[in-house]
Design brief:
The protein contains four helices and no strands. The chain is mainly α and 73 residues long.
Length: 73
């Protein structure tokens, strides 16, 4: 088996990654925390709907109503 050695990240790369994480509201600890909560589609969509204007909701509500259906069901 061959093991690939990844080159060390440069200081600039680490700084860029930290900046991006900060802008996304993610801490480095969030990346290694076990059991970090991830919202489900059903939890997010009501929040999205609440923020949409009536016209936008009329346009996109059909997409927000779609349910994922497994093949054969």
């Amino acid at each position: 088996m061959t093991t690939r050695i990844q080159p060390a990240a440069t200081a600039e790369t680490v700084a860029a990654a930290r900046l991006l994480l900060t802008q996304m509201g993610i801490s480095p600890a969030d990346l290694v925390t076990v059991g970090a909560a991830v919202l489900t589609f059903g939890e997010v969509i009501p929040k999205v709907r609440a923020r949409l204007s009536a016209g936008t909701l009329r346009t996109y509500n059909t997409h927000l109503e779609r349910r994922i259906v497994s093949p054969g069901t």
